[in-house]
Amino acid sequence: MQTRRFPSRLDVPAVEPQAPLRTVVVGYGYWGPNLVRNVIERPEFELVALCERDLDRGHAFSAKAPGIPVKADLDEVLDDPTVDALIVATPPHTHHAICKAALLAGKHVLVEKPLATNTLDALDLVDTAATRNVLLMPGHTFLYSPPVAKVRQLIDRDVLGDMYFVTSARMNLGKYQKDGVICDLAPHDLSILLHWFEEPIVQVAAHGRSVFQTGVPETAFMTVTFAGGATANVELSWLAPRKVRQMTVVGSRRMVQYDDTAGDEAIRVYDRGMEFETPSNFGEYQLSYRSGDIVAPRLEPAEPLALELQDFAHCIRTGRTPRSHAYLGLEVVAAMEAAQESLMRGGHPVAVATVGERVVA
Ligand SMILES: NC(=O)c1ccc[n+]([C@@H]2O[C@H](COP(=O)([O-])OP(=O)(O)OC[C@H]3O[C@@H](n4cnc5c(N)ncnc54)[C@H](O)[C@@H]3O)[C@@H](O)[C@H]2O)c1
Fold first, then answer.
1. Which of 154, 213, 252, 341 is close enough to 161 for a disulfide, judged by CB 3.0 to 4.6 Å?
2. Do 218 and 353 touch, CB atoms closer than 8 A?
3. Nearest residue by C-alpha to atom 9 in ligand 1
4. Which of 24, 30, 78 to mutate to test the pocket of ligand 1 (most atoms within 8 A of CB)?
């Protein structure tokens, strides 16, 4: 396995440890209410305002959180020197402009996935955060989910052996969005895969199908290649009869089935595999199959979003790097952009720029 190129610290200055972080959530559409609820519940934060342009959404918020102001103008929030942090839950194509303005105003930013819609914009945000010495964190919530963390633990403890490949299916009758299914769902798989493999993605090939509007695929099939040669096949769809959230990891020692819809039995570890002995004579190969126990490891119950927010606050206070860090977010965007380019080129494999090295250098 290749060593990670990312720095362990981002040198973000520490904030006064006792005071709750004065925080504004931007966007109260489908996902924003989940963030608002967690910000209100978590002791590390004080929700000082919601920033929302849509009047009806603003009223919906006020009905649930009376007394907390709603601001339609982002500049008013950014001009307030007592605001420490912004949590952005607006559509992806708005992320760059909102986050750039917030970072330039010296605010710490947690932005929902994806960090941006293209690599240049993502790089610009990473550079701006570094220059301003504030924390920029992409909200890759799955990295905080107990099953994903369990698989990472199994990899770290070398339970799985060499990682050969991963297959993934993320499907549902999903919410149609103009950014397309890759921008909506691929960040989940890409962030999980980057977190598990801890290796750069070097190439992506993607096919897809746009049924309703040209250039807005509802279904996509991606093949992702990692620097060490391992591959992942990812199926994404908003046009499926039922919710499927499954990933299979095939390693030399163990195989893992992760079914995110299976509650506390989301992970099953299979002691199964195939041993191949190099033939001493032509044609005399030896194959043996291993079929041992199936184990469902215990998973700590936890809400991933609560853990993500806890990590955000902790890293602002300590200057540490969050699990869902900006460079990982940048790699997700680079791979996502390569997938979109491959889709336009009829599935031709597209190399992923080694953006991490450029940022760290
Ligand atoms: N982590 C997850 O599992 C998860 C799940 C769903 C969505 N998301 C992410 O959350 C983000 C939001 O998605 P959504 O489905 O909630 O979108 P949405 O369209 O339902 O809601 C976005 C809201 O932002 C508001 N808005 C847009 N621009 C604004 C601006 N400049 N200032 C103030 N308000 C503004 C809109 O009025 C709207 O209410 C996306 O990045 C999406 O990828 C993450």
1. 252
2. no
3. 112
4. 30
